[in-house]
Amino acid sequence: MKIAILTSGGDSSGMNVAIKRFVEYSYEKNFTPYFIYDGLEGLIDGKIKKANYKDVRGIICRGGTIIRSSRSKRWFDKEYRKKAYENLKKQSIDALIILGGDGSFRALNVFYKEFKIPFIGIPATIDNDIALNEYSIGVDTALNVIRSAIDDIRDTASSFSRAFVIETMGRECGYLALISAISNGAEMCLIPEMSYNLDRLKEKYLKEIKNGRNYFLAIVAEGVKKTEFIKEWFEREIGFESRITILGHIQRGGAPTTIERLRAVEFMSLALDNIENNPNKIVTFCDDKFILRNLEEIINSKYSLPKKALEIAKPLMGLDG
Amino acid sequence: MKIAILTSGGDSSGMNVAIKRFVEYSYEKNFTPYFIYDGLEGLIDGKIKKANYKDVRGIICRGGTIIRSSRSKRWFDKEYRKKAYENLKKQSIDALIILGGDGSFRALNVFYKEFKIPFIGIPATIDNDIALNEYSIGVDTALNVIRSAIDDIRDTASSFSRAFVIETMGRECGYLALISAISNGAEMCLIPEMSYNLDRLKEKYLKEIKNGRNYFLAIVAEGVKKTEFIKEWFEREIGFESRITILGHIQRGGAPTTIERLRAVEFMSLALDNIENNPNKIVTFCDDKFILRNLEEIINSKYSLPKKALEIAKPLMGLDG
Amino acid sequence: MKIAILTSGGDSSGMNVAIKRFVEYSYEKNFTPYFIYDGLEGLIDGKIKKANYKDVRGIICRGGTIIRSSRSKRWFDKEYRKKAYENLKKQSIDALIILGGDGSFRALNVFYKEFKIPFIGIPATIDNDIALNEYSIGVDTALNVIRSAIDDIRDTASSFSRAFVIETMGRECGYLALISAISNGAEMCLIPEMSYNLDRLKEKYLKEIKNGRNYFLAIVAEGVKKTEFIKEWFEREIGFESRITILGHIQRGGAPTTIERLRAVEFMSLALDNIENNPNKIVTFCDDKFILRNLEEIINSKYSLPKKALEIAKPLMGLDG
Amino acid sequence: MKIAILTSGGDSSGMNVAIKRFVEYSYEKNFTPYFIYDGLEGLIDGKIKKANYKDVRGIICRGGTIIRSSRSKRWFDKEYRKKAYENLKKQSIDALIILGGDGSFRALNVFYKEFKIPFIGIPATIDNDIALNEYSIGVDTALNVIRSAIDDIRDTASSFSRAFVIETMGRECGYLALISAISNGAEMCLIPEMSYNLDRLKEKYLKEIKNGRNYFLAIVAEGVKKTEFIKEWFEREIGFESRITILGHIQRGGAPTTIERLRAVEFMSLALDNIENNPNKIVTFCDDKFILRNLEEIINSKYSLPKKALEIAKPLMGLDG
């Protein structure tokens, strides 16, 4: 059986670990592994190559994806999907493994319905915004990159009376901001999924300043689009000089953490164990277990942030806990 | 209610996060938090102090334990336990929280039976060797310290034809070695719980060398006491120069990881939520959930390494997978 | 002799190492060391305290400054300087050591002329913008924090065709941006001291893209105020999606590097060796040697970026090398 | 002109930066760059390949050496050197650049005398043991790896009353141990170049313990061969439990620091600027300047540790400062 892998959408740390496992475990199972470079764009353009052990040597500790990724507009046009199909046929590829978010899974689902190329999807996105799935490849590493940055800021924070506003990635999903705020003991957490009450926060902060607090740490998800505003709010309303840190793409990089590596290996093992007899599924992670689900089930469910974490974080939004 | 905390046995990264949560959440719940310094030794000697917010400022990112730890021989002598009891009475302490391994839990269990001081135990040991519990505070950080060291070695490894023997902590328990070997793609993994077959490993390695392998990574748990032997074995039997790295106490230190911090907070929250009405329990972590158990249940069960990991690692011991 | 230390202006990593050396070496020399908290503001307000060994335990590996810092407007008013003088007299402080930039040195120079309190200044600013001085405390650590962030981005960079715009600190001085651009192999470097030619860079980049280049790394100093503009320029003129990372205060933090620690110790040793018989000087570092200079000499000279580095970096500004 | 590069002896972090600069600057100067793989062994065996931009992409942040290294016994036999010469002639290589220690420089010096292949040597060894040269590629990174390990231990150190014995690399040269002991505030420093007086250290330590010291940090260079002995000495004579950390090959790896990268670039630039008209020299670094020297001058001088550092460290050896 010939199986090809592609990475799609935003890259995340740990993709390379999954790619390494894909090659090694494929050979162990007597599959022939192929790489599709540049995501769906590369599939359309036929950038397909047989993969071997050497390709994946030493990549276990590298962020990003060695087979690169893309966002494809052409894919929405059936003509290009047909081209993609013909590229696969030419090389006799039997099935696909895709690493990405649910947009990527939909892309292959449509493709399957049209051309009967079976696939399995593996969640890999630092947004961690896939329904019925608690873990996507890249999340633990991103959280630790943010943590390490905040630890560096903490040392300097107490040197001045200042507010530090840290913008984390997350256009529509505040997962990284939420977990970072809790685990790093931040005073403010703003995420796109939740409202917030600055007046109540102000009241609380002014009280804390009287009790000796001399710095604030605010975590603001990119998608809230309030980073600059919050900086000015601290200066105007709280009377604290304020500084912005926009972590940006650092969050996608960094050496994958231990848990990242373990889970990436397990996600991929399950994908290859099922690609032959149980395809067209998404491997999800729930309650410390891996479960295969139909895409429909995922699409028809709504992604939600972990409730316990939300409860803990509500006071950081000026809301009732 | 007056509650005192102590840390006992080997320290581990994340203890300080739990201590910080202990102080802050105690005040939130209208308990009065106390520190006992130097573990059971300090309890015998009456090193007890009321704790406040200032004591725990900035400790969230520090390894070790600010209230220090000890191993106490005197505790086995009832006379000293009586002294400990009197110290607690003098300060009107109502209950104890202990962070440590199961030896520490037994110590407080005996104490409870004799003097009726209720307690709750929280697993904190990088050995991760407590029955019916999948996670102890310190483990994720230790695993990432080991990973980072191996990543550094990996760069240099391919510069020579060499074998690298890395000794991880773990006197009777190979958990760190086992998970590190799998997540870092090692070629050998020796742990005290399992036998191994060097002849079969030799056969396999010699074959791989023919296919171009030019370095080996061997993870050996401290408790196997074979670190020096394996170094010499590689030189004598495989014909590869070999180098030893003994990571030692680095594994107990380092800034706690994100998961470490989250779990430390959750362990402690549960401990304080139950200390009043449901004491004399150990907070355990299983299947991504926190569960309170009686000490007897834990003592009467046998600790075992995770089966799935063992299966994956058997070939690294020269055993059938 | 009673000597007090203060840190002034922006904090930088390594200040704590110098503070530790200040306390320990003072006692070695039979001086009595004092801390002034909160910089010149604290001097005005009399926040002065005798320092001891315990105060500096464990701070060698922490960024920031444990005695905090400030920027003081009141200092420009003689009335407040008189207050500061009286605070020093009250405690019989004989001399001052100040860590900061040349603004801080001028502040104490005026103070000396008015009240005859001798002082020695030690350069400590991540801007590294003091004339006749090649190294200020904080610089090597800041450079390595930036490097580490860029290394993380590099992994993810090759996963897409993208331009990464990284804003480093430096309001009027491009030192960090300049050295970071060279040592990290960036394609663009914009600093406040130099002009740039985007048309020539565009021409060069388009040629490189034809030859296979698939990502760009642009380092832009904060003071250029073009970070957002450069991002848009890459998208509009080069046709590459572009992302911004604003490192912010991370650059002031982080554990001091080895060189940082060594130099901080040497700066302080020299300051204390000279405070009695050769005061009112600034300790500078030139050609790998420490030299004491009069403030006037420094003020009357012009700070300049290292020539060799500028020559190497000119092509990254679109200028002739 | 065709120029080949090889790395020889122990690898060190920063070699890859020099290799990247070698390729890029060679093309800039219209030289043709070649790689010799596996050091002198590969030269004998003819492992020579033309190098291009792609070979050095992304290696700037990796430890080790992508062209690998070796120690060669065959090289001492003229027959094999003749073979090496013929390999170079076959490919019309005009000159060699070698990265390594002074053993490597001698090897090429003999070769030059016999076969008139000009060369330039660049110091690259974490031992930093080359006479008339203050910096070898790899040293700053190794020092920071050691520092980071000690910082991790420091957190845990104060949790117990313990002595931590850390063995650094350095068979005949104690440079790493010396600088690490000073910059990390260790209590003991043993190096092969110096004697030591344990009785006086014992006396000092016992006094400090009375004054509240509760842990010791001892840095012992590998070449002293006393690591195990010192551990036992602390337990027997000082009455402190003691733990060993042998850092091993971690010290050769890790991402090169900023200074490492800058200096590696400068070393190589000078080598290529002189290979044509001023060859058979070693590039050395002294007083913050790069100087080309004849090998004879280096060989006839004696390597010595920096005097100022030795003076500071003498009390850590129990000697008079």
Automatic annotation (TrEMBL), chains A, B, C, D:
It is found in: Cytoplasm. It comes from the Bacteria. Pathway: Carbohydrate degradation; glycolysis; D-glyceraldehyde 3-phosphate and glycerone phosphate from D-glucose: step 3/4. The keyword Metal-binding applies. GO terms for molecular function: 6-phosphofructokinase activity. It catalyses: beta-D-fructose 6-phosphate + ATP = beta-D-fructose 1,6-bisphosphate + ADP + H(+). Its cofactor is Mg(2+). InterPro entries: ATP_PFK, ATP_PFK_prok-type, Phosphofructokinase_CS, Phosphofructokinase_dom, PKF_sf. Keywords: Allosteric enzyme, ATP-binding, Cytoplasm, Glycolysis, Kinase, Magnesium, Metal-binding, Nucleotide-binding, Transferase. Pfam families: PFK (PF00365). PROSITE patterns: PHOSPHOFRUCTOKINASE. Its EC number is 2.7.1.11. Residues 2-272 form the Phosphofructokinase domain. Belongs to the phosphofructokinase type A (PFKA) family. This is 6-phosphofructokinase.
